[in-house]
Amino acid sequence: MSGLLEEKTALVLGVANKRSIAWSISQALAGAGATLAFTYQSERLEQNVRELASSVRSPLVLPCDVSKDDEMDRLFSAVDKEFNGLDILVHCVAFAQRPDLEGEYLATSREGFRIAQDISAFSLVALARRAAPLMTRRGGGSILALTYLGSERVIPKYNVMGVAKASLEASIRYLANDLGQRKIRVNGISAGPISTLAARGIPGFTKMLEHVRGKAPLRRNTDPAEVGDAGLFLCSAMARGITGEVIFVDCGYHIMGM
To answer: How confident is the model over 85-95, as pLDDT tens digits?
Structure first.
């Protein structure tokens, strides 16, 4: 796929370390020739992100807390200054408070619900709004977001995050409609469970991996590189007729009834 994204620019949010799904997508995009910019959410993660960014010769690594409008404004101003536009936006951002994952969904706090929706779902809307003018200047673009099966089915201990992912997927469809006339496509990938820093915060995650491995048609767990390849496809001209879709990359687990 070398050269598929030559002269294209991409902004990736959500890389935490080399196990991040966002990093697998980043590697696929960089391998196809894209120039990448990255964000980090906190000083604790900054060094990890900078080291990974340097390995793909990224010219731009900036802080961004998606709950703060001023930080998003500064981010896109810097991206525009560096790239003179933008072709690809990759949204791999999600968060819910641990107490809202551990108990019953019934016990979700008002503030916990707000935080999960704000960071995991509304952030896509806020970022897309800022990315759209930069992409329009390039003649169009592609926006990609990560979701999970918990948006459609009850996954124990996923709780409020499942509801936030449902909101994210609805946002993908509405944004696809809004931005299609500007030749900007919006899609999602619903990946199978992968052992990332974020996933390990879900209670019982190891059992989840075992269950999926035993029930998925391919009888294995998802390889992060498979998600990266799907991301490359959706962000490239190969998927030029696809928008508003959520594609499953989960070894077929989502098709199973029992």
So the answer is: 999 999 999 99
